[in-house]
Amino acid sequence: MQSSDEGDDPMPRDDEELKTKKDKYKVLALLGKGGYGAVYSVLRLSDSEKFAIKCENANTCRKALYMDCNVLKGAAQIKSRHFCTVVDQAAVKDRFNFIVMKLIGKNLWDLRMDTPECRFSLGTALKTAAQCLVSIQQLHKFGYLHRDIKPGNFAAGRKESNEHHTIFMLDFGLCREFVKRGEGKLRTQRANAPFRGTTRYAPLNSMLELDTGRKDDIESWLYMVVEWTSGGLPWRKLKASDRDKVLQFKKELRNREDLQEDMFYSCPKKEFFRILKVSYHFSTSFHSDYFQYTDSLDFYATPDYGFVYYCIKHAADANKIKDTDPLDWDPNTPYFGPIEVPGDGAVIELEVENRMSAEGSINKTRKEKGKKNEEKENEKYRTRKRENKKNDEDEKMKNKKDLEAALKKS
């Protein structure tokens, strides 16, 4: 909207005034900076309310901000409390584009590092784990994979807005749609895919440069939860550049009992290992009598989010953790954050704007010719999907009954 003869850095300056069609904002401070842009706190001049703006260089090739907008639009449609709302957007000509969002508090990495032992109490670990799981399921519900699940991409709300017991999911620059809009089917799995994510938390498939699905977000979630519960992961001393060594750790975790014991130090072992089975394709002798849930998830499979949540709930009950037990960053207040059970994993159709690019217009006739053949294939797919869904539901019910029986025995 406004141009500038700013130097090499096109990003906002302290006290700079940014104009949009709706309002004016004053830049207060830089909150964080990464490969895809920067986040600042700002003051809305019309009412002196604080917000955050996420900025992206106008000349960047990869438009991560566009993905943020799409994801947050989907979150708004399902009315999720775990995603920030975009309240405004604009551009400063030749410098940067930006969106204006809710201002939130510290991320979960910083909150963990604030604790005396650099790990959460078990009550806080399980409550935050459950909220993050729900947010991942909701992201999947409107058709996106996150592909960079880590503590820095989740944050608590601000105490000033009374949201400091609610966890928000952040940073959607690496997200990818796993559905084809309007066709009612999943994208075809790619034979290979470039590495995406953060080495410490990345799922095995990503580290092997294979295409990732919904189960892989759950695998990253588990690494994150184990870290803030125990204080570290077995490969915690390795750097991002040591990807091959971290990969070896994650491979060996599948069948080495000593590594599994180290992995789940100070964690609810039985429940966390059951969750590990949700993400991994392997068999092991480690507590083998407890594991009735047989992992069969592939790229296309829908994770059993309810089962994962059940494991968290069982761990809390077994350790006499109450719903009202306080969080580590607010120890004097009973917990009043959301207590939610994740959905079944069904993907919804999003409302999309009826736009067509120039290339799309040129290819319109060609697409229409193949539409009849596609409709036939889609009908076959939908029939298979209905059959598979019924089989999945029957299998989940059997698994749940088997698990409940095993837990009673244990």
Automatic annotation (TrEMBL):
InterPro entries: CK1_Ser-Thr_kinase, Kinase-like_dom_sf, Prot_kinase_dom, Protein_kinase_ATP_BS. Residues 371-381, 389-410 have a biased composition (Basic and acidic residues). Pfam families: Pkinase. SMART domains: S_TKc. Residues 358-410 are annotated as: Disordered. Residues 25-336 form the Protein kinase domain. It comes from the Eukaryota. The keyword ATP-binding applies. ATP binds at K54. Gene3D superfamilies: Transferase(Phosphotransferase) domain 1. GO terms for molecular function: ATP binding; protein kinase activity. Keywords: ATP-binding, Nucleotide-binding. The keyword tRNA-binding does not apply. This is Protein kinase domain-containing protein.
